[in-house]
Specification:
2 domains, Hect, E3 ligase catalytic fold, alpha/beta, 7 helices, ligase, ubl conjugation pathway, E3A/B/C-like, HECT-type E3 ubiquitin transferase, four-stranded mixed beta sheet
């Protein structure tokens, strides 16, 4: 029985997926050569691929840039007051909304630049906030 179970597990987890995995591996390594990865420790590689999961939300606020807003505008002050009262999970959800990921890119929070833009629409009450994830921009109607 033990030999049967060992052979079955080997087939299910190794032999049956060998072909598809090799095709995936070949394509993956074409875009991400493994020779370059050897310079990283495992923890560093995880940060490069996945991003940081430690957050300094006040640093995010400090580094935010504003377009057609000033830092002391009431809309901005209200935004940050509400944001800082959110639970950690909701803050991560907001980060995912604005950037496409609930992690900070590998270069770190001190270099991450959120932008808040006033879309300058005629009737701001008829426009929802939106985001441009490529430029980390929140379109926040007044």
């Amino acid at each position: 029985r033990n030999e049967y179970v060992d052979l079955y597990l080997n087939y299910m987890f190794h032999e049956s997926v060998r072909g598809p995995f090799q095709a995936f591996r070949q394509g993956f390594l074409r875009g991400c050569p493994s020779k370059l990865w050897k310079m990283f420790l495992p923890e560093e590689l995880q940060v490069v691929l996945q991003g940081h999961d430690k957050f300094d939300w006040h640093l995010l606020e400090k580094n935010t840039r504003y377009w057609y807003y000033h830092k002391l505008d009431q809309t901005i002050r209200d935004f940050w007051a509400v944001f800082h009262k959110l639970k950690e999970e909701k803050k991560k959800d907001f980060l995912a909304f604005v950037s496409g990921s609930d992690h900070i890119p590998g270069y770190g929070m001190e270099w991450f630049r959120l932008q808040i833009l006033d879309p300058q629409v005629t009737n701001p009450d008829e426009v929802y906030p939106s985001a441009n994830t490529c430029s980390y921009t929140l379109n926040l109607p007044r």
